[in-house]
From TrEMBL:
Species this protein is from: Schizosaccharomyces japonicus (strain yFS275 / FY16936) (Fission yeast)
GO molecular function, one term: protein-folding chaperone binding
Biological process according to GO: chaperone-mediated protein complex assembly; protein folding
Recorded GO CC terms: cytosol; nucleus
Protein's UniProt name: CS domain-containing protein
Gene label: wos2
Region entry Disordered, spans: 119-172
One Pfam family per UniProt: CS
Bias type Acidic residues, positions: 152-172
Length: 172
């Protein structure tokens, strides 16, 4: 008989009274190597169930503090986790005080500090280019020429050449 484990869930949020598209919840459900995940996004809750490659059975149901828009919400399954971008139904400047209806402390639910922005600073922070966090970072503005600063690839360097070993046997 296999037991069901609750996966670790990370979350962060953004809010904006004027722009509905900036009212989002970022969720990351940590299920390594998930096989055929079952995902049900409803207006008041999220259900995720999957098995990992090593046959561990994971399941979690999250009743939301307020309603979301399931039709607009998105998710992406990677080898390490499942990323969600869930759109809040009500456009408001205030953050939700918590993710769930329950006020209880849930050991598996944690703040995603990589995505978290304080309520009063969220207008100053740019939205992530890739909200799912997958793939490589954006290197388009990076100047790679600075990495080799001071190095010269030419053969006329001032370093001494290595001497070859004398391969003749020594006489006694």
């Amino acid at each position: 008989m296999s037991t069901v484990q609750i996966p670790e869930v990370l979350w962060a949020q953004r809010s904006n009274a004027e722009e509905q598209d900036k009212n989002v919840i970022y969720l990351t459900v940590m299920i390594p190597d998930s096989v055929s995940p079952s995902i049900d996004v409803e207006n008041d809750k999220l259900k995720v169930e999957a098995k990992s490659a090593n046959s561990t059975h994971y399941a979690v149901e999250i009743p939301f503090f307020k309603e979301i828009i399931p039709e607009k919400s998105k998710y992406h399954v990677t080898g390490r986790c499942i990323y969600f971008v869930l759109y809040k139904k009500d456009a408001a400047a205030e953050f939700w005080p918590r993710l769930t209806k329950e006020k209880a402390r849930l050991h598996w639910l944690k703040t995603d500090f990589d995505r978290w922005v304080d309520e009063d600073e969220q207008e100053e922070v740019a939205e992530p280019a890739n909200p799912f966090g997958a793939g490589m970072p954006d290197f388009s503005n990076m100047d790679f020429s600075q990495f080799a600063k001071g190095e010269d690839d030419s053969d006329d360097s001032s370093e001494p050449e290595l001497e070859e070993e004398d391969k003749t046997p020594e006489s006694k």
